[in-house]
Write a structure and sequence with these properties.
This protein is of the alpha+beta class and 244 residues long. It is 44% helix and 29% strand. The chain contains four helices and seven strands. A seven-stranded antiparallel sheet has the order 1-7-6-5-4-3-2. Strand 6 and strand 7 form a beta hairpin. Helix 1 crosses helix 3. The longest helix is centred in the last third of the chain and has 64 residues. The chain is elongated and about 130 Å long. 11% of the residues are buried.
């Protein structure tokens, strides 16, 4: 039996990862998962214990059809999980219940808060792959090991895909994008400020021009009124008062 182990980090809280796990399928990285059915779910103390049945496609290499024929296109997988929200731990166990005579794959995944950052979640994935088929045991074990190793990153990407769709990131992950956005925003504010200053200056000039025009008109009006008064006064003075 061969043993495989890998480690992954999700830059999301344990609560988010645990929530997204139950909505993992479908996703673009796990198109081989055809169906999922909940078989049982119970609460023991404060732990959630679930059992699900998954059906997956079982793509074979060319030499595999000589052993299994054309019937081994699908395989059923049982998944058992224990979720402990108090300890922030989720452990899943999966194993195939079909074609066990040819190959058995047992997988264990443990999700806990990361030691590096408590706001992140780490996943330790372990697998045991073996075969008891006489004459093909070594070949099938090696094939199962290599396939599991190749599919492990896709499984992580699939869960991350679901997490990203459920939870919008609070910060921009790319520092270059963030810095460019800051610079762009700063330039925009500077341009808006300059434009406002120009508008203000234009407004002051326009107000001054209007004031000058009004003052000129007022002066013209005063001059005209004064001239009219002088004219009327002169006419009154030139007139002879009749004597009685």
């Amino acid at each position: 039996m061969k043993y495989y182990s890998t480690f992954a980090i999700f830059k999301n809280t344990w609560d988010q990862v645990a929530c997204a796990y139950w909505q993992k399928y479908p996703n673009p990285y796990s198109k081989h998962v055809i169906t999922e059915d909940l078989i049982s779910r119970t609460v023991a103390g404060k732990k959630l214990i679930s059992t699900r049945l998954l059906t997956k496609t079982n793509r074979l290499p060319k030499w595999g059809y000589g052993i299994f024929g054309n019937n081994a296109q699908h395989v059923c997988i049982v998944e058992e999980s224990v979720v402990d929200p108090e300890k922030k731990s989720m452990t899943t166990y999966t194993h195939n219940i079909g074609y066990q005579k040819f190959m058995v794959v047992i997988e264990k995944c443990t999700y806990t808060p990361s030691n590096e950052n408590k706001e992140w979640t780490e996943c330790r994935k372990e697998a045991w792959i073996g075969s008891n088929l006489t004459g093909f045991s070594s070949l099938l074990s090696k094939f199962g090991y290599e396939r599991f190793k190749a599919n492990a990153p896709r499984s992580t990407k699939g869960l991350q895909y679901v997490i990203d769709r459920l939870f919008v990131p609070e910060t921009i992950p790319n520092s270059n994008v963030a810095s460019q956005l800051t610079i762009s925003t700063g330039d925009t504010l500077d341009r808006l400020t300059d434009a406002a200053k120009v508008k203000k200056a234009q407004g002051v000039a326009a107000t001054k021009a209007m004031t000058d025009v009004a003052m000129a008109k007022k002066a013209q009006g005063v001059a005209a009124t004064k001239a009219k008064v002088q004219e009327m006064s002169a006419k009154a003075t030139s007139q002879t008062v009749p004597q009685l």
